[in-house]
Write a structure and sequence with these properties.
By secondary structure, the protein is of the alpha/beta class. The chain folds into two domains: 85 residues, Winged helix-like DNA-binding domain superfamily/Winged helix DNA-binding domain (Arc Repressor Mutant, subunit A, Orthogonal Bundle); 207 residues, D-Maltodextrin-Binding Protein, domain 2 (3-Layer(aba) Sandwich). It is built from twelve helices and eleven strands. Helix 1 packs across helix 2 and helix 1 crosses helix 3. The longest helix is centred in the first third of the chain and has 28 residues. It is rod-shaped. The mean pLDDT is 87.
């Protein structure tokens, strides 16, 4: 037999199987009956075995080989149809799986509600999540290990910056709030009082630490950073324990429960409000619709952050 099936002959064969006669199959296919008979004969030659028992005046009967071929052909045509659907979806920028990376606080405070809303839909790609900081996520976008990265940028010159390596969409600005542990019965602490305390921030070259030093330089102060960590939840724990003062992204303290144990520091008039920019980073080119939908929902989530 041929190494590859003749799909035209198989289509004719399945029409005969479905209708039980060559005449009815011919009418359904728009062929003359003799053409259908020739197709079946050619298929039998290719297979090297009889597929159909022909009895004048009665419906055709499949041989055991014919029944096996009909079953195999149904499987083939079903797989072909699924392939065609997938190919059409890909050409329309639909995908089966989206790999999304996000920094930890975005994963814990921004994405759960968004993904719950997306999951309630009947259809859509599977979303695979990876917790990754911005500096480690950018090379994963470049290599194709990630399709979308939810990133942050503390300073305008920090990566990701405009480049042919990726497409960048600003999702919104997340305020950074200077907070300290609550002091029941006492007035809110002012910035000048905080200068006598220990501060918590990232390591010396981290984006949030560089932003803190730039901001402090504008105010003419020198905060004493003695508790260094990249983990914002650890920063909050230190602050709640009364061990430090620090800048915390508003997303982490937007809810009533999140604000327990901390209070905002009163800043002097004219102090520049601080924020970090939330970004959606993907590879250049036309993005699948699901990425655009995620970007829109992220923008709405950041806009809802209130203190």
């Amino acid at each position: 037999m041929r190494s590859k099936p003749d799909l035209k002959l198989l289509s004719t064969f399945m029409a005969v199987v479905d209708r039980g006669s060559m005449a009815e199959a011919a009418a359904a296919l728009g062929y003359v009956p003799s053409a259908v008979s020739q197709h079946i004969a050619a298929l039998e030659r290719d297979m090297g075995i009889e597929l159909v028992i022909r009895r004048p005046g009665s419906r055709l009967i499949l041989t055991a080989a014919g029944r096996s071929l009909a079953h195999a052909t149904e499987t083939l045509f079903d797989a072909t149809a699924r392939f065609q659907d997938a190919a059409n979806g890909i050409s329309n920028r639909e995908i089966a799986e989206l790999r999304v990376g996000a920094y930890p606080s975005a994963m814990s405070h921004l994405l759960p509600g968004i993904l719950s809303a997306l999951k309630s839909r009947d259809r859509g790609p599977r979303i695979r999540l990876i917790i990754v900081e911005t500096d480690r996520g950018l090379p994963m976008i470049r290599s194709g290990d990630l399709d979308l990265l939810i990133a942050y940028r503390y300073l305008p010159e920090d990566p990701p910056t405009a480049s042919g390596e990726w497409a960048i969409t600003s999702v919104g600005q997340e305020p950074l709030i200077l907070v300290t542990g609550t002091r029941p019965g006492r007035s809110p602490m002012e910035l000048a009082q905080c200068l006598e305390m220990e501060w918590t921030s990232g390591h010396v070259h981290s984006p949030d630490r560089r932003l803190l030093h730039r901001w402090a330089g504008e105010l003419g102060i020198s905060p004493d950073v003695t508790l260094e960590t990249e983990d914002l939840h650890s920063m909050l724990a230190m602050i709640r324990a009364g061990l430090a003062v620090g800048l915390i992204p508003a997303t982490l303290i937007s809810g009533e429960n999140d604000r327990s144990g901390i209070e905002r520091v009163v800043l002097p008039p004219g102090a520049t409000p601080l924020h970090r920019e939330v970004l959606a980073v993907s590879r250049p080119g036309t993005r699948p619709p699901i990425i655009n939908e995620l970007v829109t929902l992220l923008n709405e989530a950041v806009e809802r952050v209130r203190l």
